[in-house]
Amino acid sequence: MRQVPTVDDVARTANVSRQTVSNVLNAPQVVRAETRARVERAIAELGYRPHGSARRLRSRKSFTIGMALDPLKNGISGNVLDRFLHAVTEKADERGMRILLFTARERHSQLDQMAALRDGSDVDAFVLTGTEHGDPRIDWLTDNNVPFVTFGRPWGDDDFADRTHLWVDVDGYAGVHDATARLIEQGARRVGFLGWPSPSGTGDERRRGWREASERMLQLTDADLAALSASVEDGVEQGAAAASRLLEAAQPDAFVCASDSLALGAAMAATRHGRRMPVVGYDNTPVAAAVGLSSVDQPLEEVASAALELLFGPSGTDVVPRTGNEEPKNRLLAPRLVERDPSGVSFGEITGTANAGNHTSKGTS
Amino acid sequence: MRQVPTVDDVARTANVSRQTVSNVLNAPQVVRAETRARVERAIAELGYRPHGSARRLRSRKSFTIGMALDPLKNGISGNVLDRFLHAVTEKADERGMRILLFTARERHSQLDQMAALRDGSDVDAFVLTGTEHGDPRIDWLTDNNVPFVTFGRPWGDDDFADRTHLWVDVDGYAGVHDATARLIEQGARRVGFLGWPSPSGTGDERRRGWREASERMLQLTDADLAALSASVEDGVEQGAAAASRLLEAAQPDAFVCASDSLALGAAMAATRHGRRMPVVGYDNTPVAAAVGLSSVDQPLEEVASAALELLFGPSGTDVVPRTGNEEPKNRLLAPRLVERDPSGVSFGEITGTANAGNHTSKGTS
DNA sequence: AAGTCGTTTTTGATCGTTCAAATCCGCGGT
DNA sequence: ACCGCGGATTTGAACGATCAAAAACGACTT
To answer: What fold characterizes domain A7-50?
Structure first.
């Protein structure tokens, strides 16, 4: 079995020293062109490939980004994070970096994992998703001066002023606002909203988008607005039930929803009530695509690029020092409304106990 | 800034040598209980954590599994691989192992990536998905003696006799066979099948399941069977179109499909023809769950466990030597039919050019 | 008292690379 | 001739751990 060649082997065949070989790889500009060519030939000839672990041990850089993979949320919602994961992986690949995944049942051991990954130079930085307000991971990372960026705002007092925490997020307010405005342009006069119970950073933001667009463009009383809005846990059934209530009580002529699950439920409820009306969901999941629902699409590729840019600058692989000045510390990206014609599907009778999925709805408080 | 403690620091505080500390971590049984306790106390006190890269450099083991993350297939189908990824990550976590992701636009550079990962002791083994017959990656891995396992059969002449290639797969034949049988039990007499064009390992296998169940349980001529089966590219529209043709020509009273996309299309087509009939899809995606379609569910957690067991044995983290004898080299797992009542949704008129998604259908050959 | 054996601990070398500093080399200036 | 200088290259040490072999220790024989 052939031994894997090392820098020394390359150095010997190219008649140079170890360090020169190393320089060809890491700082080509300091090597004379002629020598460089010679070394490169030797590298190709021997099929040399640097030993990652050795390099990391010495240089304390890993070209690797750590991502926590949280246990799969039921079906629909997990899709966004998976798409984000793909996007980050690809953007990282473009910089020659890789993604190290880890999970941890308990949050505590997740901190341990992250600590181990950092101390062992396994990762240069972390990309986190699904962070909550006051997330212990964030405090730990900040305290220990570990570079990280989150997909999702910290939802503190003034996120844009937060200079210790890099974040990228999608402007749910704008997304829902624009979707609502579009419906109104198309003739809607009473747009209903299905969202999640407060407090929920993302949820409240999306509701605000609907509310402000409605306020601004339609002459609706506060009572009207209150009647047109519902707060329920995520899920198709819950969406159907809530939409049904609104349809009876507040006569909406369109729906905007905080998720595609809710939107699908709303579309079904509308048909059940013998009405056909536009419904817009959120996240543009395959479900929305399959049944022809319009949906607000998050630009996950851009989110991924932006996240890496905040961490590593426009193109490098070195963590940008967080000097606390100048450089932007966050990015808020605009989503895009994907409009679809739901002519392909209509939603018929829904039975009393129809279970439109295998969602484990834990409590309804 | 505090320095990260090393084995030497621990050794010093515990009054032992480096190697003893190392032994406490890697071979506790050779250390006297009392000494071990002392060392462990020192470890806890200093908050020592082994340096992964140093360990890897010396021991040539990484406790890491490499997975290629292929560019996201459009919507629906990607879901299975993402669920698999999650499952593998969790099962790996239980063994104290982690997942390193990488992508590569071109297949060629993917080989390079894998070579680099292996040479750099970045990964101990690879888990591959979406392998094709005669996949160059497989040859390369086999030739270079790199441990790997695939989710998906090699689709060679006799996969079960293949002792050089570890694989896990789900028995699509059984899944579709049983789904078909179930429909027949429930009264169906002419079950239609929507699948993909041959040759396609998975696709042909699923079709065979339908065909043999139909042959065995129903008295159908070869001509009947041929008329009841369609081959189209994956997609909701394609499924609807094909189902529509079958409905006109062969009077099916139920459908079994090779994917949820096709199944959704079939359900829509059936409604369009004013018929209500059972439809079973494959993969149990969120789409099926959302619209209440029955579907064949792949046991991805089991697939993940089985894959790791083939590689590392029932519980360790060391690659089982592929001696070519005795130990099983593959596992074929049975899927499970998830039955749903589609009462919640009915599928209405479909317009001529309805685009029920943003699938980029490349060619129709 | 010396030899033997088994268990526990220590010692020195090594993994493959990069860092930091030293050396080499050619050239122009005094 | 000597010095200084900047660019190119080399040298020795270090990164933090494990491997392989040697040494220390105790108990038990002979």
So the answer is: 434 Repressor (Amino-terminal Domain) (1.10.260)
